[in-house]
Amino acid sequence: MVILMDYLQILGFGLIFVISAILLKKKSRAKLNEPPLVSYKFPIIGHTFDYYKDVQGFLAKCRDEYGEIFSLYMWGTVQTYVGKTTYSEVYKNHHTFDFNKAMEDIMPMHHFLNRPEGFLNDIDKYAREFMSDLDKFAERVQKNLNKSYNEFIGDGKVIRSPLKVIQQIISRPIAATIVGEELCNDNEILDSFANMTADLVPLLSFPPILNFIYPGLHQKFLIFKFKYFNNPIRTHRSIILSKIITVINKRINDKNRLRNSWKRPDDILQELTERFMIDENTVDIDSVADFIINFIFASVHTTSFIFTQCLYDYVNNPEYHEELLEEATSIYNKYKDTPYYTIDKIAEMDKLDNFIKETLRTNINATSMFRKTVSDFTFLSGYQVPKGRTIQTMTQHIHFDPKSYGPDPKKFNPYRHINSQSTRPERDYVAFGIGKTVCPGRFFAINEIKVAMHFMQLRYKIRSVSGNRVEPIVFAGFIFPNDEGLIFEKREDSVIQEF
Fold this sequence. Notes:
Mean pLDDT: 89
Number of helices: 20
Strand content: 5-15%
Transmembrane segments: 6-24
Cofactor: heme
GO cellular component, one term: membrane
Keywords: Heme, Iron, Membrane, Metal-binding, Monooxygenase, Oxidoreductase, Transmembrane, Transmembrane helix
């Protein structure tokens, strides 16, 4: 009984402390001129249920009533939402609005890898440096894409779960770029590239209801779960480590033995090896593996999503098939005597680029590009947000703006983007972000998707299993490719004679 009373007493003091901290925090923020907080019916729950019932409709209603910037009480915390007239301030002030801090709340990767905070902050810098010369990857990407087509589609096939197969197809050329030719055909490596993100997502999809108890508790739950229970990253990391250690040691030995006649491999594994050299014979292989894991997260899943949705948009819009095929055939015939397309030749696929850009525009999530403030900030409107505030950008509001895209902005129309490249950030097109934090891997991703779509058109006629239009899946404001099967029928009149 005494122990129980002591426990209750401690619990009571704890509750008093938490409530006092919250009140003090609110008091310290009382001086800020914050954006209007949308009114809500239910304490604690706030806007959470209303938001997820109809994300786009709810956000539109809030914009109509409160303007371009407002705040919602979601999952136990206040979040601020910005629209098309305000979002650019967030990305111009990237030192204040931090992507890595926001990402840590939902996927604290450095904890999952047992690394100190900030260990992975150089990932963007490395991506820009490693991808500065895309021509050195062009041949291997194209060779391995067609090798994947031969393996997974061959002379034609009905694919019941397209996204899963596309992840496997995309994994080989990306593996060739990241871990090199020595490992890009290794089945265990390819499985890790294709499935690592897919294995992780279900474990991260648990809604952050613990934040209703105390903000940040959900993150602590994730860290605890991945540290002591199921952590798929650990399994994939072990596979990657066991594979790259052999390759790295062989490369070091070859370099020491051959000296000036040694040919340096052009892949990200070699770049990371040189970054993490301890001495001429020793490499911090754990760090190499951890950065490879993050390159996988940043590339395979996203590229597979975009490519899969491009295929569905291709099926849904047959009126563009003829001119896309004409362009592909013309380019193929023009350069068929060359071993592969260089980047400048891929740049000639203008109509295909317009098509891909329209896929990116029309399949945008309701909100994205979230950031977290590392200090208080004042917008040009005079509204202020405190340090630690999560900021969400209403990206569909930007991509479906009638002023930019006409009276029917949701209609699929690649002609909107003539003379406007899919990789170029614009005020009304933010698929890859904008400003100094724009996605550094976008050029590699778009070139890979263009080549993938190019050869897919030349090799196959594509249609849905049902013969009907296939709409994307919309869940909680997020857009996912449908899972309806696709039929790939070999073109008997293909200009490609040998695959």
